Amino acid sequence: MKTLLKLVAVTLLALSVQMPAFAQMADMPMQPQMGGRGQMMGMGNMDRMGDMMGMCLAQAGTMGLTDDQLAKMKPIHSEMQKNHARFGADLKIAEIELMDIMDVKDFDLEKASAAVKKIEEIKTAHHLEMLKAMKEMRAIFTDEQFKKMKKMMPMKMGGGKPTKMMMKKQ
Q1: 29 beta partners
Q2: CATH class, 44-148 region
Q3: Deepest in the core among 83, 111, 120, 156, taking most CB within 10 A?
């Protein structure tokens, strides 16, 4: 019974923490150098991959990208944007389904657990898709272009500390 209560508590805590984070991020504009498309989704570095690709396309001249490289990169970026839109919709639906399950006082814990697992599966599948697309994109770069891309990134790849430019004043 204690394990069951812990699972419920952790699930409720996770949901209560995620929702405000999404709400705060929804009004945050994207960085101008990233093409200014849409809103940021507060999901960490995985979702910044699409921003990085967009920035690379926007900075093609600075990076020294050829027309052939751009022709290869644009469809990858477009597909990544589509996947990201689908992910956002699927995630939102799964979260609504979980909230519907938990709407009653004595909700079905098995259904709630399955819904939480579904949410995590959606996130994992999206992250893996993003990694695959980033690998495809990076394979197009020369070593020198990859170095230039890393220098242009506002945050070190691999979860480095944010630069002053990215830090939000409270």
Answers
A1: 39
A2: mainly alpha
A3: 83
